[in-house]
Design goal:
The chain is mostly beta strands. The protein contains 19 helices and 72 strands.
Length: about 1100
């Protein structure tokens, strides 16, 4: 039996090993492509003079001779460009010498390919840069195609021989006249540490990007200022696409360093509008390559930008010293917007806004990245992502940078000492450059391939696909080079021959494809043509454009993978002028040609949906304004601020006129306000505002309830925040008694003096004596995160509240409570208490005839620890039992957690200085490391710097190596093992967990309303959230725009986003409350440091 099992195991292993990879790296001796972009540091030009010296070159894929085979153009930095003719079967012929492509010693970066003169032949525009003192070598080249692989350089004749250090350029028709215009990504000087431009002003107007309009007379004119595009940046890449589907081509520019990415919407009148801050909640910092495509098959173009953050702990901490908070906020205040050193994957919301989901898709960290290409590489009907990366030398290695600086100083001082009478000397005459650069590590990296599994689930399958070669890779492009129906990839490397990957999906898999060549009889521009297909697998969308990734141009062919489908039910081509061509029952596995003259006028369908909500921005005009406080001065390694948790909201009829009124609790230093509803449905400020005397306090939560049994609504306000020292009187809660007419009076003696930083108040008659008692949740012990805080119950005795005698200590040091709800989940006649919080499980405080005790739920819920921010009860499956919905941090955050690899925090005085320290810990490739880097960690525990001294050493150490196993065992240790928001279905006191839809996992959920909004008798959920105040090395949780979850009756939900619901709450939303206005359902949303929002619920 053992022998049989061993034999079967060997056979299984052989089968696995013999499985074909999707891609095969073609030997240059077979392909004939021997291009090698050799880059060497020299005295005259090197990485110390030019920061982008290792930036590499691009790839252009196009059919230059119209023989039906895609050819290849490769740009070289210190070597000349090459052009290769495709001979078929992935064999190529170098025709550079005969082609007219010039090598004048210039530095080529980007290649852009398009038919500039509408003669049916593709022309080539090559971007030039580097060489600060040789502007003649920086002149861009325009090669006009004369046929048969003959080109003539005519940039001067066409007026585009620009010498402005152009990194790349894009052809597109900005004014819809059928002629291709040209947008140049001009760079300022790109100084290395020893350049004469180092420290110079690099934002001068003369470095602006440029737009050239095609006159139609073989000439371009500069229309940059006229078009509203006169702006300086550090542009690396651009994509020209119609992001809002209005028929006009927009621009997204990926900018390096502290310049924001530029998102320009085309106004249709020859001008553009800059909309970065309005459309993007944050961007990458070192933005490199950019591509736009419909990743999630919703018919809208999404945008991906790559950055430079490494995936593995060592490279992350050794090559990036960390984001300085003051530098971060300086960028924001200077108009640079919120920028983080991570890739962004901006999903198009269909309303001129985007949400970054890179953390959710696990595509946020691909090291020093260059090109990113979004295409269906396995023909399964879902677009995948390919990313190139690598740098010849790790110039951002912190230790190496220090060593290099010391070496240069030592060389200079030694020379001066030995040659005191020499006078001024040139550093490059005495510096042994090779020895200096040997101090800088050189590490080849794998590129990345993310397979798309749908619902924004992507998985790194680089090795499985055969793309795991180590390299320094830069520009890349895709195209079907062997005409077999799948996409090859070509990669331009530094100091290594080009990678040509044959795609073997067609040979090895059963997936089908459809390829479409778009033609115009007059050879007019067809960039911006949109193609939609529909089949049994759903809908796909493709829009043609010019350049993708970085430096490069991929094939100009519409490519669809069809998966198992053999037929496309309908195919709709929308041409640039708006005409449409429609085909039906199109067979798969073919390439078809479609001409624009087949386009016809078509009726534009009325796409207006039956929305559920409509915002009224003038209903209640109120802005919550936060006070200024720096939590990190108290605890430098806090994961997020704790002083920005308001506003508080409470809704009730306070003056007995049968109209709902609103209390809005303010931040410290501001006045809270009570708004009274009028008979016309407007809101006016109440003349009675007794809480003005308490404006120093921070309102976190509030509730109207009848505290004294006189039939009117009194007000309890929870004080909280993190601004004041522990046990400060500023944390005292308040009770305001209503006289029945909406006039309130503060009563200090009716509640006990408990100095807790609170989070939540929830009324309930928990002792069944006919009056309302209170649960008060404590959010934290100020300045002592994450020490568990004690919450408490207040028992109502004749209108006066006393702290409940919790003999079982059920609420003592219970944790960092964020929310709670009362629910008689076991139908025993009294309300039980469910509590959630950070680093906590769902916690049940069981009520047994007024006696409380913490109890296990005796199911899987006991073991799920999260950063829970909200909880609400409701019967979601109509079985008569209270179910629960819980809002968590979400899965679109830098922090990850599961049961095998939890996210943890340790808290103790690790350096015995009398102050406790926060140590956040995460897992990377199965090993637990400190989350924060050397600089931040040593700022909190200075002895780390003296003990380990080097970034590389610290980066190599796990958490036990840094802090000591014994010290960690003594510390307070908390963990989270899930960040998913969930529904818990009550089955006679036991709960079954169902995750909310993936769209609800894209940000934190801070509050819910449970209500039936479509009158089908099934409870729906309206949720709001986000977490804006993360520490600056963590991208803020801002992908949430509010979400409407339509109940199905079985505890599951379908998702309705803004375009289908009308609900849009994109800010740092903390509270949501139902309210009736003129007896109609409404909703108010309390946003931290932003406007209050009101929505009317539209009756179905």
């Amino acid at each position: 039996m053992v022998k049989i099992l061993s034999f079967l195991f060997i056979v299984f292993i052989q089968i696995i090993n013999s499985q074909e990879k999707k891609f095969e790296l073609i030997d240059p001796n077979y392909s004939g492509i021997h291009f090698n972009n050799i880059v060497q540091d020299k005295k005259e030009h090197n990485i110390l003079l030019y920061a982008n010296y290792y930036g590499g070159g691009g790839v252009g894929i196009a059919d230059f001779d119209n023989d039906g085979l895609q050819d290849i153009y490769l740009t070289g930095n210190l070597v000349g460009d090459k052009i290769y003719r495709n001979l078929g079967e992935l064999k190529f012929e170098d025709l550079t010498e005969k082609s007219g492509i010039v090598d004048n010693g210039s530095w080529s970066s980007g290649v852009s390919i398009a038919d500039v003169n509408n003669d049916g032949l593709l022309d080539i525009y090559v971007s030039k840069e580097l060489y600060d003192d040789k502007p003649e070598l920086r002149k861009n080249k325009l090669y006009i195609n004369k046929g048969n692989f003959k080109f003539i350089e005519e940039s001067d004749k066409w007026g585009v021989d620009v010498s402005a250090r152009t990194r790349h350029a894009v052809f597109f028709d900005y004014n819809n006249d059928g002629l291709l215009d040209l947008y140049l990504l001009n760079q300022p000087p790109n100084p290395g540490s020893y350049s004469k431009y180092f420290g110079a002003n690099l934002t001068l107007p003369e470095y602006s990007l440029q737009l050239f309009e095609n006159t139609g007379d073989n000439y371009f004119i500069d229309v940059t200022k006229k078009a509203g595009l006169f702006r300086t940046g550090f542009p690396n890449a651009v994509v020209a696409s119609d992001f809002n589907k209005d028929g006009l081509t927009d621009l997204y520019v990926a900018n390096d360093f502290d310049a924001p990415d530029f998102l320009y919407y085309n106004n249709g009148d020859g001008t553009f509008k800059y909309k970065t801050e309005e459309s993007l909640k944050h961007t990458s910092f070192y933005s490199m390559g950019v591509d736009a495509s419909d990743l999630n098959n919703d018919g809208l173009l999404d945008v991906m930008v790559v950055d430079m953050t490494a995936e593995d702990n060592f490279r992350l901490k050794s090559n990036m010293s960390g984001m300085n908070p003051s530098a971060f906020w300086k960028v924001v205040s200077n108009g640079g917007h919120f920028q983080y050193m991570f890739n962004t994957l901006q999903i198009n919301n269909g309303d001129d806004t985007f949400s970054d989901v890179a953390q959710y898709t696990n595509t946020s960290s691909t090291d020093w990245s260059w090109a990113n290409l979004i295409a269906d590489f396995d023909n399964d009907g879902m677009k995948d992502i390919y990313v190139t990366n690598g740098l010849l030398r790790d110039i951002r290695n912190t230790d190496a940078d220090k060593k290099l600086g010391e070496f240069v100083v030592e060389v200079a001082e030694t020379y001066v000492k030995n040659n005191p009478d020499q006078g001024d000397i040139d550093l490059w005459d005495i510096l042994p450059l090779e020895d200096a650069l040997e101090l800088v590590p050189s590490v080849k990296l794998k590129n990345y391939l993310y397979k798309n599994y749908g619902d924004l689930k992507l998985k790194n399958e680089t090795d499985e696909w055969g793309l795991g070669q180590l390299s320094f890779s830069n520009g890349a492009a895709y195209g079907d080079l062997d005409n077999d129906g799948d996409l090859e990839i070509v990669v331009n490397n530094v100091n290594e021959k080009v990678f040509l990957y044959k795609n073997k999906s067609v040979e090895n898999e059963t997936n089908h494809f459809l390829r479409i060549f778009l033609k115009d009889q007059s050879n007019k521009n067809l960039f911006g043509t949109k193609v939609d297909i529909y089949n049994k697998n759903g809908h796909q969308f493709f829009e043609t454009t010019n350049v993708r990734g970085i430096y490069s141009t991929s094939e100009d062919v519409v490519h669809f993978g069809l998966g198992s489908s053999r037929t496309v039910d309908s195919l709709i081509v929308t041409w640039p002028k708006g005409l449409q061509t429609k085909l039906f029952n199109v067979k798969s596995n073919q390439t078809i040609e479609l001409f624009s003259y087949t386009g016809k006028d078509h009726l534009i369908p009325d796409l207006k949906n039956n929305l559920f909500f409509k915002e009224d921005r003038r209903k209640i005009i109120y802005t919550h304004v936060e006070n200024v406080f720096d939590d990190y001065e108290k605890q430098v390694l806090l994961p997020h601020k704790l002083s920005r948790l308001g506003p508080a909201l409470a809704v009730s009829d306070v003056n007995n006129d049968n109209l709902d009124d609103v209390y809005i609790g303010s931040a410290s230093g501001k006045s809270s306000q009570l708004y009274l509803q009028t008979s016309s449905g407007d809101f006016v400020l109440s003349e009675n505002q007794p809480w003005n005397i308490h404006r120093i306090l921070e309102d976190i939560d509030a509730v109207f309830f009848d505290s004294d049994g006189d039939g009117d609504q009194d007000l309890y306000v929870v004080s909280g925040g993190n601004e004041f020292s522990p046990n400060s009187s500023t944390y005292l809660d308040r009770l305001y008694i209503n006289d029945g007419k909406g006039v309130f009076k503060f009563s200090r003696d009716l509640i006990p003096e408990l100095y807790k930083s609170g989070s939540v108040v929830r009324p309930s008659d928990f002792d069944n004596d006919g009056d309302m008692d209170l649960f008060i949740g404590s959010r934290m012990i100020p300045w002592n995160y994450p020490e568990p805080a004690s919450s408490y119950l207040l028992e109502n005795i004749n209108g006066k509240f006393y702290q409940y005698n919790d003999t079982n200590d059920s609420l003592t040091e219970i944790g960092l409570v964020t929310d709670a709800t009362w629910s008689d989940y076991d139908n025993d006649g009294d309300d039980d208490l469910f509590i959630v919080g950070e680093w906590m499980p769902l916690t049940l405080i069981k009520n047994d005839n007024g006696a409380f005790k913490k109890e296990k739920l005796n199911d899987s819920c006991d073991d799920v620890y999260g950063w829970w921010y909200s909880i609400e009860s409701g019967d979601f499956n109509n079985d008569g039992q209270d179910d629960l919905v819980l809002g968590n941090l979400g899965e679109n955050y830098k922090y990850k957690a599961n049961k095998d690899e939890p996210f943890e925090v340790f808290y103790d005085d690790f350096d015995s200085n009398g102050s406790k320290d926060i140590v956040l810990a995460y897992y990377n490739y199965g090993i637990q490391f400190p989350l924060r880097g050397f600089s931040c960690s040593s700022q909190q525990v200075p002895e780390i710097k003296s003990k380990f001294k080097k970034y590389d050493l610290f980066a190599s150490l796990n958490i036990k190596d840094v802090y000591g196993e014994v010290n960690l065992e003594k510390a307070l240790r908390l963990h989270a093992n899930s960040f998913k928001s969930t529904v818990l279905l009550n089955n006679n006191g036991n709960f079954n967990s169902i995750n909310l839809p993936f769209e609800a996992q894209l940000s934190s959920i801070n509050d819910f309303i449970v209500e039936d909004y479509n009158n089908d008798g099934i409870k729906d959920i309206l949720a709001i959230g986000n977490l804006y105040n993360a520490e600056v090395e963590t991208p803020r949780n801002d992908a949430g725009n509010g979400i409407f979850l339509l109940g199905k009756g079985d505890g599951t939900f379908s998702t309705k986003l803004r375009k289908d619901s009308g609900f849009f709450a994109p800010s740092d939303a903390k509270k949501i409350m139902p309210i009736k206005v003129n007896n109609n359902k409404g909703i108010i949303v309390g946003n931290n440091n932003d406007l209050l929002q009101f929505f009317k619920a539209i009756e179905p």
